[in-house]
Amino acid sequence: MHHRRCPNCGSVEFRGVGTRNGLERAFSWLVSPYRCGLCGRHFFLYRWLAPLTGTD
Ligand SMILES: [Zn+2]
Hints:
By secondary structure, this protein is mainly beta. The chain has one helix at residues 22-26, and strands at residues 14-16, 31-36, 42-46. Strands 1-2-3 form a three-stranded antiparallel β-sheet, with no helix packed on it. Strand 2 and strand 3 (42-46) form a beta hairpin. It starts with 13 loop residues before the first strand and ends in a 10-residue tail after the last strand. Zinc ion is lined by residues 6, 8-9, 11, 36, 38-39, 41.
């Protein structure tokens, strides 16, 4: 099962961040970048799994 957790530390404390480069932006329709508030890990979540953060 997929969970909305940081893949590094398992924290649920993370927030959406902006795309950093063209590659991320190219895939922004598919995944959204997030940054873990606990360990700082930058990762991606599929849009249909990601929490709604109102970044659009
Ligand atoms: Zn983490």
